[in-house]
Amino acid sequence: MSDIYPPVAFYFKLSFSGVSRKVEASFKEVSGISIEKGVEEITEEGNPFIHRVPTAVKYPNLVLKRGIITKDSELTKWCLNSIGDNLLGTDSLSETITTKNIVVQLLNEKGVPLKSWNFVNAWPVKWSFSDFNSMNNEIAIERLEFAYSYFKPF
Q1: pTM
Q2: Which CATH class is domain 12-153?
Q3: Which residue of 25, 107, 113, 127 is 20 to 30 Å from 91, comparing CA positions?
Q4: Cβ-count burial of 117 within 10 angstroms (0-12 exposed, 13-18 middle, 19+ buried)?
């Protein structure tokens, strides 16, 4: 366990089930690790109070950002196959979506996991790129968003 408390948020590791190349899991940012209990508001006629009752749990998309990979990429192929790309002649509604588990690990200064989250049955739902601007000196970034069934911290 780390002597530093709280841990730093810039040292983390990602892995994807069925993806072997280490460069595929090199991301600069992870966001969307969140869970929220839904709430429904019910009003009664003649009662000035609103009853708030719990509903289903909601998860936002898991968002990953990294520098654009220019070589053939297993993740790029997965995104194109899942989202659908007319350039590949696929139709996203007729193709079977392949899900993968994504594991995010927060690491201590020695690279030992402090906390991990397993995102179960994840699939790509959005793939976008940063704007290109000749007046800025910035790295080109790709943003991948994944829906998933649920996540388990461990």
Answers
A1: 0.80
A2: mainly beta
A3: 25
A4: middle
